[in-house]
Amino acid sequence: MLACLAAVGGQAAVVYKWTDADGVVHYSDQSVPGAEKIYTAAGGSSAAKGLAATDSSPAPAAQKQTPLGYATFAISSPTPEQTFFGDEMVAVSLSLEPTLKPGQTITWHLNGKELEDTSSHFVMAHVDRGSYVIAATITDQASGESRTCDSVTFYVRQPSELSPQHKNP
Question: Burial code of 81-111, b = ≥16 C-beta within 10 A, e = fewer?
Fold first, then answer.
């Protein structure tokens, strides 16, 4: 599905993302009605890590700007491959510098499903056991331009009844 992103090479590209009637998320270089336009650029990230969200214009390292004019645009919590145990709460945090600009909104996606929270910091309580991928998209309401940061994969484990650390009620 994301193979088309890997073929982008060293050039910026526009990718269209949409969800079909069965809830399957699709990506394409061809526009379809209702698709979200995502700007991608080559860099150190791979398609398997998520959609890259960097500015394609050359800039000195100290002054490099990421999408929509942010110097920093990345998920700082949870960290990649972080594991949470039991009933631990999962703190979610987006590093943005400067802060979110007027007229721009944050949309969070957990395993492809949009979350209700639209703030840059929040906590998820009672997350079921499993593997999760979280990503954030910033959309400029005036221009319709949006950028998605690299996604982060994290895990939630539950203690085993047989584990010595398990607390019996």
Answer: eeebeeeeebebbbebeeebeeebebbbbbe
In 3D space, the residue among 97, 108, 107, 41 whose CA is nearest the CA of residue 72 turns out to be 97
Each domain of the chain, given as residue ranges in start order, spans 3-157
Question: Maximum CA pair distance of the chain?
Answer: 59
pTM over 0.70: no
Identify the CATH number of the domain defined by range 3-157.
Answer: 2.60.40.10
Q: Give 108-161 pLDDT, tens digit per residue.
A: 999 989 999 888 999 998 888 889 999 999 998 888 888 888 999 999 987 766
| C-alpha dist (Å) from residue 162 to 80, 87, 99, 107, 139 | 28, 17, 47, 40, 47
